[in-house]
Amino acid sequence: MNARAQQPDFAVIGGGLCGRLVAWRLAGAGHRVALYERGDAAGTRAAAWVAAAMLAPLAEAASAELLITRLGEASLAAWPRLLAELPEPVFFQRNGTLVVWHHSDRNEAPLFERRVRANAPAELVDGGFVKLSGAQVGEAEPALAGRFTQGWLLPHEGQLDNRQVLTALAAGLAERGVETHWNTSVDDHALPAARVTIDCRGLGAKPAWPTLRGIRGEVARVHAPGIALTRPVRLLHPRYPLYIAPKENDLYVIGATEIEGEDMSPVTVRSALELLSAAFSVHPGFGEARILELNSQCRPTLPDHRPALLWDGAHTLRVNGLYRHGYMIVPEVAEEAVRFAGALLDGRVADTDAFEDWRRDARWTGLFHLDTRQALA
Ligand SMILES: Cc1cc2nc3c(=O)[nH]c(=O)nc-3n(C[C@H](O)[C@H](O)[C@H](O)COP(=O)(O)OP(=O)(O)OC[C@H]3O[C@@H](n4cnc5c(N)ncnc54)[C@H](O)[C@@H]3O)c2cc1C
Questions:
Q1: In b/e form, how buried is each residue of 92-103, taking b as 16+ CB within 10 angstroms?
Q2: Is residue 85 in a domain?
Q3: Cα(218) to centroid of ligand 1, in Å?
């Protein structure tokens, strides 16, 4: 057999959230795929390991632009189909987001509402952004009855269990015959042989993509039986906006700080105090919760805070910049990456003209970029 025939069609570098999904989809389309991940099969080195995995395009519209909201909405619809194909179950719900605030922070509420209404398309806001007053807060979320006099219910939003997604994708990779290389770091000077390389290293791609930066996020995971929140709750606050995302078995992810910088060191005392006291202020039952973990990671972020698919003009596609929206948007981003990677493999995109045509006709045109440092003339 010649060397070309022995090569996989695709080498996917970085097996966090995006790399796993891309590799699994490519293998599902019948391609030979190899995946290289510096960490373990559980995904403990990925930002995806720490994330709360809320799928909240409308709540996020308070600070995200329309492309992200639209990607989030389309991806929210795609998740159930995608999860149904995985060989292991994943906790997923579409039971909405509740937004509340303490009386002393009531000035935050109109700001939040204005931003959401300004940034999100009207068809999402209509019926998707419901004002609650008085007893309605407790009717919507019985655990918070009598604790908040006002709130917003965003009934269509979702969430899932991040670690179950990573595990189920690892099982899916095995099932589809992906050649997985766990605990294998790859750097740009020694890329594995493949016809097309897909770089999904998150912040680890910084040597190849210098404008990437990290935004540190810290979370607590606690076990709190008896509180019984039924959906993610966001607490508006001028300095410490917080969410509490309930998972199965009385597990809660409380997060998250948002700090510029690539500091991956453990959670600071200050952040732990802020997160835990804010949770306690939402429900005093968190005072008896058991702290399972305090974790930090960095969100891979581009200067415009948008995700991007960057083609080098030859055989490498980079997928990055998922920032704080990875779970929320990855089905659509990965789908675009898979389609484009297929076109690189079979030669439908081989020069900049073909790339421009592809970009123009793509569903998510705004994702595509040409690496002008390396592009073909
Ligand atoms: C605190 C926190 C909370 C979050 N909450 C949410 C949320 O509620 N909802 C949401 O949608 N998103 C959330 N996110 C964002 C989400 O986690 C990220 O957007 C997503 O994980 C990015 O996916 P990725 O695959 O690009 O990067 P990652 O998940 O970081 O994966 C990159 C992978 O590449 C590997 N790698 C790096 N360098 C190399 C190398 N040289 N060789 C081989 N492998 C390498 C890493 O080990 C890692 O596994 C949160 C993130 C954080 C930090």
A1: bbbebbbbbbbe
A2: no
A3: 13
